[in-house]
Specification:
Elements lengths: L8 H16 L3 H19 L4 H19 L1
Helix pairs in contact: 1-2, 2-3
Length: 70
């Protein structure tokens, strides 16, 4: 984190990866929190239309869908 800085795209990717693990463990609340962090970082670093940003939005939406089903 220190080497790259808190808003580097790789940090966003790390949050996204951790969110995927949380989602696989059925921890939707944790996954949503981590995907949101990833989204904020990737949107700032890469822009709102970058594929990584759009992917983070999609994954966050999946968390919301899972929340509604439970």
């Amino acid at each position: 984190l220190k080497a790259l800085g808190p808003e580097h795209p790789h940090i966003g990717a790390a949050y996204s990866n951790m969110a995927t693990v949380a989602l696989g463990q059925a921890d939707n609340a944790q996954a949503a929190e981590l995907y949101l962090k990833a989204l904020v970082i990737e949107e700032k670093a890469l822009g709102p239309t970058h594929p990584k940003t759009l992917q983070a939005q999609q994954y966050l939406g999946r968390c919301d869908e899972q929340k509604k089903k439970s």
